[in-house]
## 1
Amino acid sequence: MLIFNIIMKIEIDQSGKIEHTNRKTIIAFSNSNNGAIVISGNDKKTVQRYFRSIGKPRLFIYVAFVALIYLLIKDHVKNGDQVIVDREYPGYESFIRKSLKNLVQKLSGKDVTVSIWQIGKKSTAHDLAWKELKMRVQNLAKRVTYDKVIAVIKKSGNI
């Protein structure tokens, strides 16, 4: 009996930047399934205060972004999957790519490939994130609180 491990391409997009702590951020994914998470501005401010308290305020945006992506895909990713993150933070792409790959491997035991590309407005992930942020049409986004984000960050060893 042959068992095939189907490698999936998972696209990730963000609406509402993490650094804009006065409003929520939606991060969505699409492959054969779709999903999204939302974090409030107040929860992002708490995560930002955590980074300030440990003397690493400049890492807030990028490490929080990686932690949120992990929380989004952790139950959907399999060995060999290709995770494609929309280009959000030029200049930090290598850090984001390596950090996400290491985080998935460390906390989920899965080996994935992480790429950063411009996924475009025709992506299902973009459409889902944008609609959740602007129109609240689908309400598929699962709420994530600051304590879950900080717990992942502490486990990651990135800081």
## 2
Amino acid sequence: MITYSKSRKVWQKITDKLSGFPAPDLNLFARLYIAQIFFLSGRTKASSPEGEGLWQCFVAFVTPSETTLFLFEEEYALPFMSFEIAAHLALYAETFLPILLIIGFAARLSALALLGMTAVIQLFVYPNLWHEHLIWAAVLVFLILKGAGKISLEYVGTRR
């Protein structure tokens, strides 16, 4: 029969061995997870390029589509700002803040802004999706508290 003290010693040996393995940078995983959610959402809000060329592609990249403007006017209808401003701000935030998170630059500030956006989405747009927004908020709070981590531009910049 295995006693409590023997099983505890076995468990201690196992955890000692596991703690010797290098841990992945969880901050990187958190950044990539939350960035892809917001970036892909932002891409659905952008218009299609009209014509060819780099400038036309960039303009389309940061211009809300007609569908996006319609949704912000009719379905989302934020009470504290015009639908046009809200559509542009959402597109810009969902485009550029995830990029900052991915590269690990101004990660805490980006996460804070996306947490605010998550709160607005929860309160005014999709209040029934609290279970999903709670996960987003947890990841964003983790990033606000812990920062970008070792695999980031912030870490490289502070090491020099």
